Amino acid sequence: MLTSSRSPFGQKLEEQNATEATQLHVQTSSSVASVEKVVHLDVLVGTMLSFVDVQTLAVACQVCVVWNVTGSMKMFWYPPLLQRWGNLLSLSKNKEKATPKTVFRQCLHSEQNVMREHVNYHSTRTLMDSKDTPLCMQFDGDMLISGHIDKNIHIFDLKSGAEVRKWKGHTSWVKCLQFDEHVLITGSYDSTIKEWSRHSNYDLVQEYVGHGENGVNLERSPRGSVVCLQFDKEHVVSGSNDTTVRVWSRETGKCKQVISGHDRTVRCLEFRHHTCFSGGSDRCIKVFDLNTGQTMNEFAGHGHRVSCLQIHRMNSNLVISGSNDRTARIWDSRIGSNSIATVAEHDEAIRRLQFDDVKLITGGDDQVLRCWDMRKMTSNGGTPHAAWEHATAVGPSRGGPSRTPRPLASSANDGRIFSRPLSRFMSNDPSHHGRVSALQFDATRLVCAFTLGQTTDGTHQRRGSIKMWDFEQCVPNESENDTESDETSHHK
Fold this sequence. Notes:
Blueprint: H1 8-24, H2 31-49, H3 54-60, H4 65-71, H5 74-85, H6 100-113, E1 119-122, E2 125-130, E3 134-139, E4 143-148, E5 152-157, E6 163-168, E7 174-179, E8 183-188, E9 192-197, E10 203-209, E11 226-231, E12 235-240, E13 244-249, E14 255-260, E15 266-272, E16 275-280, E17 284-289, E18 295-300, E19 306-311, E20 318-323, E21 328-332, E22 341-343, E23 350-355, E24 359-364, E25 369-373, H7 386-392, E26 396-397, E27 400-401, E28 416-418, E29 423-426, E30 435-441, E31 445-456, E32 459-470, E33 477-478, E34 489-491
Parallel strand pairs: 1-29, 22-28
Antiparallel strand pairs: 1-33, 2-32, 3-4, 4-5, 5-6, 7-8, 8-9, 9-10, 11-12, 12-13, 13-14, 15-16, 16-17, 17-18, 19-20, 20-21, 21-22, 23-24, 24-25, 25-29, 26-27, 28-34, 30-31, 31-32
């Protein structure tokens, strides 16, 4: 029999959620008695629910009134929601007002709707379509910020679709950007990186200057052009056509480290803690220690420039890269320099990609975005998603639970080739389509920026657009190739 004593967990649950529990309680004729049961069972029920995943939690809430009241508290929902969808939960500023169950249903329905086989999805919305060609963009729950060829930074309201602000941020093309709740940081072909405050009307608060002072320039773009960047609370890391990766202090604005390793333009990069992965026009992916500048590893396998890459959000050893050789490759830094799997269905270069534990979306010069089922990515011919689960899960060891994910097994022929995507995303207006210059999805939406170059009467003109696919509103259309086999994969 349970006693009236309270564990720290039970005290916190009772103090923080007594009001919420009462509000969420299902009204019955014995509502007072039911609330008393919640008080007495909070330790037992709460402890059990704190160990389950989000789908199990949803089922548990249907067991009885007590489980429903306790299981409906936000403190149980947000950890498994973040574990399942991570930083994809940028739904809206009003997500605090939405119940966790509503958020879960919206995320799950959106995911299931776009994970159907052999279908095409047409864009549901156009945010912009003009000569102000977008080169980079990022969105959160309520707004999208993009950088353009016209040297301007544009801000769009995702709810209304209206452009709410535009200003000239650089003296040349705005090639890359990233923002959080406090600042926006942009990089340009004018060789500068600028930091803008989101709390003071996007005033310029810091400028980072130094790219182009050393290194070489083997590209047509201006020397020192900033092509890619990422930042955290302390540092900005940037890549340039001067072939260097630079580490900047956000406190002083000074360059702390100049890393040389690439032979040509650094096209993409991402870092986690002090480890940075960068891809370049030299067809290589380099792994650097940002503290020392030393090269820790190198992946070679792409047949053309590496245009994009992403690190797995839970396992920094897993990386997926996209290339102008029309393939995307999956790498595990613990098992050598060979890729463990390759996806190859694009007709032209892959420019951008993003993935989570369920799907990989790739986009490039052939105007059609492909969606791949990450659970089927395997390099050893095993069960459909065993390899990926093994690579991202925490497995037990003889000495007790291990916090190091198990590596994938590598094959001598550099992994399997997957040439059958799950589905495709297309523009609802193909005439204004072009190559993909930016791509991002969250739990409920996919947004893509396109650039289109046209030559008419000897005059070259550019045009660009930003398209959105609302996963809940997307209507699946049967693919022209829906009679093909579910998956075509073979060894090289």
